[in-house]
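Checklist before submission:
- one chain only
- standard amino acids only
- sequence pasted in full

Submission:
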Amino acid sequence: MNAFSRRGACPALSAPMQTGDGLLVRLNPVAGGPSSGGLSPKLLIGLAESALRHGNGIMEVTARGSLQIRGLTTESAALLAAEVDALGIAVRTGVPVETGPLAGIDPQEIADPRLLAERIRVAIEDAGLTPRLGPKVSVVVDGGGQLTMDAVTADVRLTAVQSNEGVLWTVSVAVDGQSAKLLATVDDNAARDITVAALRMVAEKGRDAHARDLSERQLASLAGWLYLTSLREAPSSGRTEGGAPRKPIGLFPLAGDTFALGIGLPYGSMPADKIIALAQSALAFGTTEIRLAPGRALLFLGQPATANEPLQQTAATLGFVTSPTDPRTRIAACPGTPACASGRIATRDIAETIAAENADILDFTLHISGCAKGCAHPGPAALTIVGGENGAGLVVNATAKALPAGYRPGYDAARGFSRVAAVIRSARFEGETAAACLTRLGPAAIAEAYRQAQSEKRK
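Returned file contents:
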């Protein structure tokens, strides 16, 4: 086993990644029930117990729906891997080809994406592409339904759509569901072939390449694959245009008067002992499977409908997120200090204070990063509070790596944000969102408000 992988790589179970609080491993259990490797409550308890024995006791569900265990050493990571193997948990390997967390069981999905996803996985392996592609290259196959994959970034995205000919698949490249570039709308065979062809082109550019690096000429050749007609206006996908994807928290009706219950991890992280307590409660209520969901959540399946409310209550008591309107779902926060040696600010304490005091204006993504690496939210955010040598910087409409527009002491960052929130409340027009108000105010005014709270304190 490798001691650690380079930063930016995917920290798989066999290749942990060095972080500020030790080694981190990531695994993606195969969904579909214990018989096919999915997580039963007992298996999740077993994983959490391993995390307590071998790590620092912190477990995470990522924005992509992967499970992470933190605080490992080279020796303990090997022991953890052996215990995962002993538990018999089947995990995804190779190039990620991801489907939605309710794939195959959602009565509202346009098509079951699992068969096409598996055919793509096999085709990728047969083509020998796995060792030639970078660890961050991925594919999404989205059958639609209640929990779409629109917010999950991917190099190639396939989305089921209804047409007069039945179910077809739109094939797009790069970024998320809102900004992906449509290549073609085709049947499942052609969708698989275009996907593999696109990944071949990416592989030819090297292991640091992504689909966004393909030329217009290459994209045009993919759009005309096998002389198929590309439909630039896709048939209906069942999505609401411009609407945000539904969060995986709350109740989701399934077949036969059953429900999936989504419960979120605040900032994607929870102590393993609390995950054990929740899984034990779920086991007692009759839950048969627990799925990981993109958006930092767990989906509980199989329990009778009467068990959902008491299971939610248990989760709320333990500190989990049980409502999609919980302001903590709008905040991305890494472990920060003291959990991570790279952190410069106490991100989770700052996040909890902001969520408690400013829930009314959090209609945008707030990123709180312990350092400029921006692990919790690599992309741009409306506002980012980032720890550095000069304290807690405020970055506007950029990533944590950008130069902050203003600073204040890390211990006082939440107060600075409260000043920004007060300016938003007083300046926004009737019906205007806080996000739109931030854009209208501009970075200079926002940074001045953030800094001003410290100036007032000194008077």
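Reviewer check: Confidence is low (pLDDT under 50) at residues 1-8, 33-37, 227-234.
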